Amino acid sequence: MKIIAKSLTNVKVEVQSGRHKFIADEPAGVGDDAGPDPCALLLRALGACKVMTVMMYARRKGWQLNHVEVRLETNNQWH
Q: Which helix (H) or strand (E) holds 59?
């Protein structure tokens, strides 16, 4: 897997993974609030990984599982 992160204006960053691109940024005042901040991106990745893992495990075991929801929260005091 190859990830490319490029600085744009202010602290805004374009992140590319394969054919997918998105913007990461910091909230207004520090950045331009053009996208989620790095902590939110990390929580999103962890949440997606957990949901995918549970779904694939259930599929492998032959369990009928229609929905998985994970809620993550951080007390991000860096801003």
A: helix 38-61
What's the pLDDT band for 44 if we cut at 50, 70, 90?
very high
Residue 75 carries which side chain, given as an amino acid letter?
A: N
Q: Are strands 13-17 and 20-24 parallel, antiparallel or unpaired?
A: antiparallel
- Is 51 strand, coil or helix? helix
- The tens digit of pLDDT for each residue in 4-14 reads 999 999 999 99
In this structure, which long-range contacts are made by residues 14-18, counting pairs with CB atoms below 8 Å and at least 24 apart in sequence?
15/41
Question: Among 28, 25, 21, 23, which residue's Cα sits nearest to residue 11?
Answer: 25
pTM of the predicted model, to two decimals? 0.80
The torsion region of residue 29 among left (phi > 0), alpha (psi -120 to 50) and beta comes to left
